[in-house]
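Example complex used in Figure S2.
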Amino acid sequence: MKQMKVDAIKNGTVIDHISAGKGMQVAEIINISGENEVFIGVNLQSKKIGKKDIIKIENRELTSEQVNTVALIAPQATLVIIKNYEVAKKVSLKLQENIENIVVCPNPKCITNVDNIPTKFKLVGIEPTKIRCVYCERKYNVDEISIRI
Amino acid sequence: MKNLISMRDLTKKDILQFLELAEKIEKSKIKPNLSKKLAALIFYEPSTRTQFSFATAMKKLGGQTITMRGTQSTSVQKGETFADTLKTISMYADLIIMRSAIEGSAHYASEVVDIPVINAGDGANQHPTQALLDLYSMKKTQGTLENLTIGIVGDLKFGRTVHSLVQAMSDFKPKFYFISPSFLKMPEYINEDLREKNVFFQELKDAEEKIQEMDLMYVTRIQKERFADPEDYEKVKGSYIIESAMLKGVKKKFKILHPLPRAGEISTDVDKTKYAYYFQQAKNGIYVRQAIIATLLGGTK
Ligand SMILES: [Zn+2]
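Predicted assembly (450 residues):
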């Protein structure tokens, strides 16, 4: 692929190796609206994972909550902090055992939806990622859930 | 142990401890005294049987009960929030016993109050005291919980009793036969749990097929409301009725269990056979609930 100008950002964050198709969802989590320049690449070739999505955000670092959420949606993604065109830090994404107030429970009869209380999920499976609601105890595949923003 | 919310929280050892204590209580080897204790029965969803069973258990322990019924207020509605109601009640009582149609209510309650909480049923999720009394009945009739062959008949989709039971039994190397109308089959997430634990299960078309192999048959109610077309209900109903004629050649210790109330799934001519165990099962519920309450309130010494 031809190198594009957007490939290099001066300062900011690059989320690479997002499995193809998940890029837009990740973009939603990190809330790309605002002043910062954002580049979203979809269906790019990757030696590591076949097809991938990539996101580059100028002048921004993610909060730890956002990092945890990205890990949930795209566990194999890599996160790099860029400072002055150079890699300043590589952050490895790690699935959290406890996922608090990030995910909406899809069960309409769950207390978290009826009473609007913070949600709590536990990680119960990896590849594919599976989580269980602490309250109603339903187990979900990560592609069945939506994110509480 | 502070609360009893879900069978998922119990180890095999916890389960056996509850059952042992229930047995001691039944045989009057131990008489817990909770004469200074008050249990609040909060029943947002009516269930006269469960409520009576808990109240009886508490009274037999020498304790008192107060009862609250009504609808679960939510933060969407005006008035006192659910959390505030619970906190207030926890100022009066030593124990909360809660039934609700909203799933996760009891778990949430246990986070909000400092006193112990017993889940007396939360929607389609859990009903751990029922599961424990079912296990108690199984152990009492079979002498063990290990390696039992159990047929489960009826509504396997919405029957939380069945879900808790299957989950609780899966650590005791059981063999399950599931018998239900196709649209009331065991949910896939339960089957998945069973596969993960290497538990044998098979779906059968009718209850008679493997009845001679079974140690126990657990029958649940098929509710008319689950059917869109009443005619379908009438058609299906007949295939899931247990009659005394079906019981030829069953194992000596074979027993039929049912959480009650029944709605015709077990023909009354079964009642007089030695295989009927459902009324005794309800009685066992008192001992088991006594054991649970006594454990949580520290009255077992
Ligand atoms: Zn839930």
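Chain B is about 35% helix and 15% strand. Residues 42 and 98 of chain B are 5 Å apart (CA to CA).
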